[in-house]
Every structure is written in C-alpha cells, then in structure tokens.
Amino acid sequence: MISKSEWEAGASNLLKSVIKRKGLTYAQLTERLEAEGVHESEASIRNKLSRGTFSAVFLLQCLKALGIENLRMD
Fold it and tell me: Potential cystine with 54: which of 11, 38, 58, 67 (Cβ 3.0-4.6 Å)?
C-alpha cells in the first residue's frame, strides 16, 4: 500500500519533471499560471512543490498552464 507521503512525493516529482522537461523555471510557470487566471507567487509554487502538499486543482492548473493534454499513469 502506498503511503500518503509517497503519493505527495510522486505528485511533486511528476510536476517537477514536466517543468524540467519543458525547460521552464518556476518564474515562467508563475507567468503561465497568471495567464490562466491563477495567482501564485514563485515562492508559493516552490514551497508547494518542495513539500508535495498541493491540491488536485493546483496540479491540474499547472498541467494546463504547461500545455499537458494527456497524462499517462503507468
């Protein structure tokens, strides 16, 4: 059984890997989120990703801002 902290780490690592694969910074993610109407500071994003504690809504907002249309879960 996967623990809550392992799920949090997995979600955080997923988002970090997409950001890195796209060659973006947290500042650029902040700008993209702002364009979607999501107001987050760069520090807030950095903290959420380092803790791994963020909502599914935040994850989906980031994925949309990053241009991710499909997500494979295997």
Answer: 58
